[in-house]
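Example 3.2
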Amino acid sequence: MTVTWVAIVVAAVVAVAAIGYFVMQKQQRRQRLQERFGPEYERTVREHDSRREAEQELLEREQRHAELNIQPLAPEARAAYSKKWLEVQERFVDAPTAAVTEADHLVTAVMAERGYPTEGFEQQVADLSVAHGATLDRYRKAQDISRRAGREEASTEDLRQAMVHYRALFEELLEDTTGAARSEGRDGVPTADPEVATDRTPLREEPDGDTGAGTRPVEHTSPRNTQRG
């Protein structure tokens, strides 16, 4: 009888230990996914019926990403793309819509050279989310503005924000980062007003006092550019 009770206790201890290990593994996996995908984690959870399904999709994205031949840019390619971005940025003053379109093409070109597939927007963001989840929402916003610009429904300020959003991902792809959040206030995207500093105008985002949420761009005018000779 004593042996039977000992066996039952041992079995119960083993079962509890197994359950504890399973729960711990699940928590560690969830934490890892949250850290790796950033805001994209919660977005994916909202799009699925359960957190389990969302996490399974993120795991599949990781597996696909691991099979891609993602490579950093060569120094000369990085320098060439940086120069092209500055040229696009300068054209924004006179042709903001065209500049946003060029910025979109430039980001796509960098993606392709790094080894990311570029056919199909949803697949693009899925592949990018593994290493660039922190800036992926900005890429989505830029794409949305670009689509509205094609219907002539985007203002000049909308287009300027699209440039800011495109640049966030562009810089990460260029620098071969792992999607770490970029510091705000150094986008350097020019305004369409020629009397305001262009490529050297730092921008930052501040809370919108009218709504209590969201952000709005704040421009700093350079005395050198605003004083007439």
